[in-house]
Amino acid sequence: MGMLIAYRFLFLFIYNRLCQERGHFNMRKKKSTALLISAIIGIGYSIYLVAYFAGVIGGSGNEAEAIGGSIATALVTPHMICVIIAAIFNTLGWANNKRGFALVGAILYCVAAALFVLYAMFLIPSIILSFVGFANLKKINAMDDQIIVGAGS
User: In this structure, is residue 70 part of a structural domain?
Assistant: First the structure.
């Protein structure tokens, strides 16, 4: 539940920053849909990972299950951290139309897939959409620059 509140706070902070940026309240900047979908998938998967492995540690009946759950959580923790950081960078890349953030998020998804290959299938859509969104941001930023320069003339 705390993770969901943190993500909601992050989205509200990014939204307020975008509204204040450049003073263009009447012009809506184009965003990458692929990057947004990838961020939503990444955030959902992050919430699933944290909820599932928190339940594995806390919901064990005997000592052997607790030890097994702790070992499994220790093995998945680097994967979990990379996915959470990738989702944050992906969201920042989408919100700010910054190619660097989108690329870092896509690479971190790849690293997370390599860290825990068993769960890599859950990251393949996010990896593909992140790289597609990264490629589309160049065109989107070029169009936004033309609109802003054209409006100022």
Answer: yes
